[in-house]
Amino acid sequence: MADKSIREARTPDTVRSAAPEEGVAEKALSRDGISRRKLLGTAGATGLVLGAAGGAVGYAAAPSEATPLSSLGSNRVMFHVKHQPGITEGLQARGHLVAFDLTAGTGRKEAAALLRRWSATAERLMAGEAPAHDDTDVARDAGPSSLTLTFGFGHSFFSRTGLEKQRPVSLDPLPDFSSDHLDKSRSDGDLWVQIGADDALVAFHALRAIQKDAGSAARIRWQMNGFNRTPGATAHPMTARNLMGQLDGTRNPKPAEPDYDKRIFVPSSGSHDPAWMANGSYAVVRRIRMLLDDWEKLSLKAQENVIGRRKSDGAPLSGGTETTAMDLEKTDAKGNYVIPGNAHARISRPDQNGGAAILRRPFSYHDGFDSGGVPDAGLLFVCWQADPLLGFVTIQRKLDRGDALSRYIRHEASGLFAVPGGAAQGEYVGQRLLEG
């Protein structure tokens, strides 16, 4: 299947059903020469496929080595693409975010070798193949499961590798915000890797492979685990919900919009960014704890007023459906705004922020409970934009001045990373920076 058709099959908020590239099913993936797909076909006579409406439909098949993998596990995302994978694809069921710091003595040459190893491993894993060396066999029975690996560079990477002159101005540290309660040990980092998949074992397998590939060149600075609803779990494709029960991502920029690329990706020319960032993007990563005990004490009406949308279907309080434009001037019988002046959806709208927009692609997280039984849960917020100052910073400054939601959340970790464009065939991610 061509790159274009696979990426079209994985647009946000739709059920993915792309078939694996022709020939991938026949590749030998294990040491004994049995492919993962053949192994799955012989090991299980029953499985699930997605129906046209996005529901689960059972089927039975006689065990046979010729039986192909026929499930979400067969979905494949291509590695060699214009923009790195993991940005425009739909939300994935499982995610890992991990930052690394280069070790003492690791410079530009060693960093290049590391990115070369990581890129080779990412290409193999995303194709449903085992890593070249020391496979853990965690995902031995699975297909690619829409696996994506995305690589970025932090502000400190450039001084550690003597590449300060190539550091983008857009990578300047984020300003402080009043809602910040940041743990520095879980923020920033020289290198950042985002892993996503529709199977938890496939995602963990990739995380372990990337860690092993780091070798002595880099050590883990922090790592976070997230999740989303599994594709096909709802009766029809829909916007995901966060742990507050709200639809999250309704106003994401859409590829059909004429300024979509301009908002999300660094252009190939005419930019203040260095040439190696062409077709890349900037990822803002925030660990946002939701104060769920406080939130859940609110009545449904109070929760909806905080957000500015109905909880049931995401429609604006001014009426209509989820995609209906908000009527910010609509008032009730008492003359009050139907959508309160400090509602999150009102304040964060692009037309309330000089057109600023970000592509949200988050994961939820739950890291247990504290000694008082309070859940440590919330959002691993990841957003993408061509310029963080014109995207996240502009919106967050506005939210910082009076967002009703701010009393129910706490930003506990933060990072900003330059994510270069996708690696061309025969290249590794970041090659134009490290060898330019």
UniProtKB/TrEMBL annotation:
The chain crosses the membrane at residues 39-62. It is found in: Cell envelope. Keywords: Heme, Iron, Lyase, Membrane, Metal-binding, Oxidoreductase, Peroxidase, Signal, Transmembrane, Transmembrane helix. Residues 84-228 form the Dyp-type peroxidase N-terminal domain. Residues 1-28 are annotated as: Disordered. One of its GO terms (cellular component) is cell envelope. Its cofactor is heme b. Residues 1-13 have a biased composition (Basic and acidic residues). GO terms for biological process: iron import into cell. It catalyses: heme b + 2 H(+) = protoporphyrin IX + Fe(2+). One of its GO terms (molecular function) is ferrochelatase activity. The keyword Secreted does not apply. The keyword Nucleus does not apply. It holds the Pfam family Dyp_perox_N. Binds 1 heme b (iron(II)-protoporphyrin IX) group non-covalently per subunit. Its EC number is 1.11.1.-. Belongs to the DyP-type peroxidase family. NCBIfam families: Dyp_perox_fam, tat_substr_1. Involved in the recovery of exogenous heme iron. Extracts iron from heme while preserving the protoporphyrin ring intact. This is Deferrochelatase. It comes from Streptomyces guryensis. The lineage of its organism: Bacteria, Bacillati, Actinomycetota, Actinomycetes, Kitasatosporales.
